[in-house]
């Protein structure tokens, strides 16, 4: 098999190895990479000699830090409605659905930083491996955006309100909490990854997993779940922040301050999207919702401002519009979720390999 400069593809024995190859950019996804991954996955599924698909990231820092948001900023600055970004998201969300439906074991090595779009190309896979170096997050509200790539579906299925907490705050989690929240399946020490990945070329996935997987380091969310569940069960984002502030828990009060620093529009839309994801059922329906929200975000001032503050100028002082949760009307939230008409993304219904096995 052949790939591209930004996606390395090789086969060895029973496995096909797909490596995201932009290490200096923390393997941030470009449209070219999404297309290359889609093509490579199709070839893997059609090749009778390939029994396992393995996704890794080049370099030592992580699998993937997400989509290339600098390119989104440039597209927005063009003043043309960001058509390149809209096309990128449509193909990215189709890829996320395809990964979930992959007919062969799809092993995602979620070592190091795995955020945003990196979660989309890994956490929908059938075998998801984390290490003590893993930092998994959907940090979109910090740039005026909403967790996409099916992230709301993943987080909606976490125990209690843990997923709501992670979606609204963008808090990164380590291996133990990733396992607790259903974002990963197995823990491996990082120093054993090389042997683990090599053995996938020789033996069935489950045999290799049993050989290498072990107990993960303890996380922190389980001991915080009581106040998280109580506060995030509130009906509105404003009430969530009030409960966090008044809870008496120092960590909860800090979380309230964290939420106040995020885009108010993004926080309120994220809360609505997450709760609606619990009712939508399939990943495809959630990805269709993601596309509606994403295109609406292109017309919202907060996305461009958030990227500017966090990535371009790096002053970490975004000027959100509107500036407070109380200033975001419910009509605005509803508009983000409303159908797109002829621009709607329609994905064929399918069942993930994970659901089929459960």
UniProtKB/TrEMBL annotation:
Keyword Hydrolase tagged: yes
One Gene Ontology term from the biological process aspect of the record: L-valine catabolic process
Residue ranges constituting the Enoyl-CoA hydratase/isomerase domain according to the UniProt record: 17-337
Molecular function per GO: 3-hydroxyisobutyryl-CoA hydrolase activity
Record-given protein name: 3-hydroxyisobutyryl-CoA hydrolase
Reactions catalysed: 3-hydroxy-2-methylpropanoyl-CoA + H2O = 3-hydroxy-2-methylpropanoate + CoA + H(+)
Matching PANTHER family: 3-HYDROXYISOBUTYRYL-COA HYDROLASE, MITOCHONDRIAL (PTHR43176:SF3), 3-HYDROXYISOBUTYRYL-COA HYDROLASE-RELATED (PTHR43176)
GO cellular component, one term: cytosol
Keywords: Hydrolase
Species assigned in the record: Streptomyces nanshensis
EC assignment: 3.1.2.4
Cross-referenced InterPro entries: ClpP/crotonase-like_dom_sf, ECH_dom, HIBYL-CoA-H
């Amino acid at each position: 098999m052949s790939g591209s400069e930004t996606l390395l593809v090789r086969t060895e024995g029973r496995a096909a190895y797909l490596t995201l190859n932009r290490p200096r950019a923390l393997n941030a996804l470009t449209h070219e990479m999404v297309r290359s991954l889609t093509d490579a996955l199709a070839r893997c599924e059609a090749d009778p000699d390939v029994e396992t698909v393995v996704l890794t990231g080049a370099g030592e820092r992580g699998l993937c830090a997400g989509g290339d948001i600098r390119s989104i900023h440039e597209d927005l600055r063009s003043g043309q409605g960001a058509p390149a970004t809209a096309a990128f998201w449509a193909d990215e969300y189709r890829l996320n659905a395809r990964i979930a439906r992959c007919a062969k074991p799809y092993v995602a090595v979620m070592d190091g930083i795995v955020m945003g779009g990196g979660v989309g190309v890994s956490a929908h896979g059938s075998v998801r491996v984390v290490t003590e170096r893993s930092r998994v997050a959907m940090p979109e509200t910090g740039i005026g955006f909403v967790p996409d790539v099916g992230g709301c579906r993943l987080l909606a299925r976490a125990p209690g309100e843990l997923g709501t907490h992670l979606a609204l705050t963008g808090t990164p989690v380590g291996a133990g909490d990733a396992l607790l929240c259903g974002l990963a399946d197995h823990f491996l020490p990082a120093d054993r990854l090389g042997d683990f990945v090599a053995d996938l070329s020789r033996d069935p996935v489950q045999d290799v997993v049993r050989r290498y997987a072990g107990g993960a380091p303890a996380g922190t969310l389980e001991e915080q779940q009581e106040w998280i569940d109580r506060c995030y069960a509130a009906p509105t984002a404003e009430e969530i922040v009030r409960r966090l502030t008044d809870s008496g828990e120092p960590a909860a009060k800090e979380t309230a301050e964290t939420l106040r620093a995020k885009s108010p529009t993004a926080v309120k839309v994220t809360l609505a999207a997450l709760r609606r994801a619990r009712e939508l059922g399939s990943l495809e329906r959630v990805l269709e919702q993601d596309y509606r929200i994403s295109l609406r975000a292109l017309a919202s001032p907060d996305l461009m401002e958030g990227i500017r503050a966090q990535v371009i100028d790096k002053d970490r002082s975004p000027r959100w519009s509107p500036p407070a949760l109380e200033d975001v009307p419910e009509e605005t939230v509803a508009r983000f979720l409303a159908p797109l008409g002829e621009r709607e993304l329609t994905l064929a219904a399918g069942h993930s390999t994970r659901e089929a096995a459960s």
